[in-house]
Amino acid sequence: MKRRDFLKLLGVAGAATMSTSCIETYHWMGTKSRRRYSYLTAKEEQAANGEAYYASTCMECSGSCGVEVRVHKNVAVKLEGNPQHPVNEGALCVRGQASLARLYDPQRLVAPKMKNAEGKLEDVSWGKAYTAIQEALKTSKQNYYLSGQTTGSLSTLIDSFCKTMKFEKLPEFEPYAYANLRMANKTVFGRDEIPAYDLEGSDVMLTIGADMLDTFVSPISHSVQFGKAKARGDWSWIHVESHISASGIKATKRYNIKPEGEVYLLRWLIGKLAKTFKNQLAEDVVTKITASDEEVLKSGLKIEQLNPILESLKSAKKPLIVSGGTAITHEAGLEVAVLTALLQWGMGAETVDFTHAQDYSSVGTRLDLANTTTLLKDKKVDAIFVSRCNPSLHSTAFAEQFKNAKFKVGMGLKLDETLNDCDLVLPMSHYTESLDDTAPHKGLINLVQPVAKANNTKQEGDVLLELVNVVDSATTMPASYEDYLYDRWSQLEPEKVFVQEKFLEKGFYEVKLEDVKPSLDAAASANFVKNATLAPVIKDGSTLLVIPSIRNFDGRSKDISLLQEIPDPLSTITYGDWVSIDAETAKALKIRDCDEIEIKSGDFSVKRAAKIQPVMAKGILTIQEPHLLGQLAIDKRSGEVQSCVHEVLVSKTGKQIPTPILSGSMESRDDGSIYSREKGTNRRGVVPYAYDPHGHGEDHGDHKDDHKDDHKDDHKDDHKEGYEHDHSKDDFEHEARKSLYRDNHDEYEITTGVRSPYRWAMSIDLDSCTGCTACVAACYIENNVAVTGVEEHLKGREMSWLRFEPYVYTDQKTKEENIEIVPMLCQQCENAPCESVCPVYAAYHNPDGLNAQIYNRCVGTRYCANNCPYKVRRFNWFDNGYKGRHLPLHTVHNPDVYVRTKGIMEKCTFCVQRIRTAKDAAKDENRNVRDGEVVPACAQTCATGAISFGNIYDKESKVYKMATKQSAHRIFDITGIEPSVYYLGKKGSEDDAGKHG
Amino acid sequence: MPKLILTSVVVGFHGFFIILGIAYGYGVNKHVESLEQPIAFSHHKHVKKAGLQCTDCHTKAATTTRAGIPPMEKCMECHATIKTDSPEIQKLHAYYGKQLFEVDAKNHSEELKEGKLSKLEKVFAENKHILPVNAMLQTQTKDSKWKITDTGQEGKEYEVTESEGMLEIRGVKKAIPWKRVYWLPDHVYFSHKRHITNKISRYFLFNTSATDSSGVEQTKYLESLAISEDLKTAFQENKMQISEDARVEAQDKDEWWIIDPAKDQPYSITKEGKHIKVSKVGLDCTECHGKVEYMDIPRKLPSLRMGWCVQCHTKKGASLDCVTCHK
After folding, report:
1. Using a CB-CB distance cutoff of 8 angstroms, which residues of chain A are in contact with residue B177?
2. Average pLDDT across chain A, whole number
3. Where are the domains of chain A?
4. Are strands A947-951 and A760-765 parallel, antiparallel or unpaired?
């Protein structure tokens, strides 16, 4: 080809290329046209911005906390605690926050399912389902109804359903039925109930094994009271337990006790205190109980530990004594519960409130479930209805015999172990789709209000009423559950407008009750003491404790993916099952984190990954899988299952199970590796925040914690403890470092001439923070943080903006090891190291002192994350936001926050969208934002009120008062980056000793 | 031969781009077409001719972040009776689910059973109702009920019911699938309220004489926080109503505000030589949306790019902090 031809061609082609690119540009500059639907109905226009809040009740557990459901464009987006509700007062736990995910579960049942000829479940219509039930009931004679714990109107409806349809109602099945506790209350007080515990009204609380703030009966109610009592200052808490729980480490004093040793402790205490008892016990009972000073040492407590317990009980005016958890679920568990009740009676019993007792009247025990299993085994069950419970998971015997029932109808949200075996499965509505009520304790009726329209699912009440109407056309029962409820509610108050105007708006109704004073059933308790084994043999060797999980409770919440993503506070494990093992046993057996171990005792055996748990007493192993309780022995007296497996054999199998341990194991803290390919295990090398309550902590064994404490506080401690420390060097270093960073605030003032009236800051009271991880769940949902999955977690790519760092330290005075749990979020540094390295100014400092991140500006260099000393920046390696989620799940997203895509760095922004909303409202009234108007999602859901947020320029604000307290300090303050998060409270330090914490 | 190969390679390579260009051109054409709304609603007729204010229909603009599209009920307040014979209003009625017309069933029942529409189409046209080209008779829901669905962009649905020898034709109630003209990406926060009730911007309305008919300075009235009768008439002459509850507020020593509870934006009054200047406080809708009163089909005038926002924010002294708008 000639050169000329070539150029000609090139010219023509070049022009063509140019024109295409021009058109392309025009195309992108042109208007983007998008369709819009369902935006313009009249109802939408009523609510401002198409947004509203509806009062309802969380039904994830029997605690029944009041919630407000945020509804955006007719879609339920988030749950928030109802601030007026008597149970939770605006707080919500981690499971409550996550329970909305059930509504959008991709695996949810969408239609009734019936077993076909091949024995497989297939979708059918409701009509067919009803016909099938009708046909089956014609021939069946022995019909049974088994449900989970039911309260309120539904409980009454089930009773009348059973009456008209000739069903027999089986005792309700709850994995945690507190059988020993109820039995003890029946023996001592003549009441088969669980009282409400008045933490707030007490001055000393002694808890034996009861994890009050984690899972025990009504943890959120306890946490709210704990926060208030703690703030009062004159409240102290002694906790005695055999393993270690997240609430245990928050106690003023925590002691390790041997399993079953609790009996000796209580006997000794009763013996010592009997003379000063407010309510006297019979003399022969006391003599029978009293344990000598030698005997009490069998419990594993030393005399110098026992005396403070005795002293504080002696000086207490209104003590509260609670036993629960692992302390009452062993062979001598009933004795522990009874002795606690007797001690409580002797100390006045003013803090146990039977007036507002928990409703467990129709809840059965494990013995009742065993009876049901026998019925099934003898083929005496023709038809059985199972709803809201999963007995097949919790009892292998039940699962085996369940097939013997001729016709099994299951009701639930999605298929589980029990529903899979049913002949007919009816899809139930989520609680945000239902109209219902609950009665968590006496004198309180909670409203469950629908905010979304159910698709093809029904409520249990509707199903039962429809069945009654189908079978018996002459019945007097209403045709719909809504009518049934309105009939009942209208009787609450004679006013006609009550339901519409008060109940639906407020969300709950309190009935005034007469006070119930507990009284001693002397004969029954004396009789019990006479026959009780008051000297259990303390077994040597390792003990496995099967405990409930703070994230999954009895295992029911395990199928919510968000809860899998949030780490367990003490072990920081997200996905998978594990056994926590104490450090001494692990050392002796050469077990490291993630090693698979086998635990054997008789027929019982499990293989799980190991996680070394510091501070836990020697010879204790814990496993957070309550379904294993089904394989353990049952106490014949009360029907309580024994969660302690004594004298287990622990052995290494040699395998390793990759387990995501987020904060790195204690032993691998300094090895610096993130993912060891060679070993195939995850050993995260992230050095956790070294919270050192005494400034200069001793290096303890393996834990080499750098000195990273508040530098001002160092000085105080130095003087007191006589340390020699070169202050001048510190000051110099501080100033030198400070000069490295520009002062953003001043810069803004110079360029604009305006000084922002705000400087947002947060304070976190470590004494009140219970590590319940509710704030993590709230943060996930509020900020559309992605759920990534186990694979990513093993690579250290979790997305949580807020995490918990457990930190082990040795108390200098008592020389005892303890754990502190520190919530770690973006510290919004004034001189943030992340800002100066961003090449595109995506990370920048905002005039209000926020360390803002502009997502659409971010190009994903990840320099900022490398430069962040707190490791709180998270990178999106994949499109986890919209694309990564299963279809209905993406509906649960906050429209105020951008969903980050691949290649974007994200972080906590102090919920900048809420700040923006508050500023907007304030601007309308031409004023500044007032204290308390901006509440980030984490602070809002916190039950103990540990987190306060506000404008630190405002001298009247709560956060200013907290930040200027003596015990306030900032993490890595010495580096001069001036973080905006103030941590408060030092356990056992000289300033606070005896005051609180 | 090598020449041929080279030519074909070069032509092939660049030809690809030419074809791409044609494809894009086609796309752009389609794009322009797509700005046509399902109902040819004319802002010009409603604002300029009928004299409606923006906030009369976009009621939430001054109080919430979104201006919002009025519900169909709003349209029907007037158009239940006004201009009902127009084909565009008939479309609205169809979306609203109103009964459109009745015909004798005899002529059509056979055709309907066969699933054809040709005759009925004519009847639609006679009744000033244009059945879309891609309309199809969907299903015979019951013995005497048919559904006509429009699978095109307008997405209309009609219901044909046979009763007592007559065919009743009514629309199926459905939200009008308006096409969005103004669209902001997900990472941007924008509030209409904040811009309309913004206290920095002034939008000029009219000038009027500084003295009233009796020769008293207008400012005298304003200083005593009263509105003179002449000013009131000046407002009326400029087609602006002032209600009886309107009050005067001194904002500055040379500026007064008339706050009318019936209006969302206050009026600012300043004296400039022999005139007093009346302006609106806050941005006027036209400042961003253009003179919508002269548009039949509204077009997106500003680029809505960040630079466009920022230049105005800079000019008016509004916040330049990134998180003000970025979420």
Report:
1. 35-37
2. 82
3. 3-107+432-510, 179-358, 542-661, 740-995
4. antiparallel
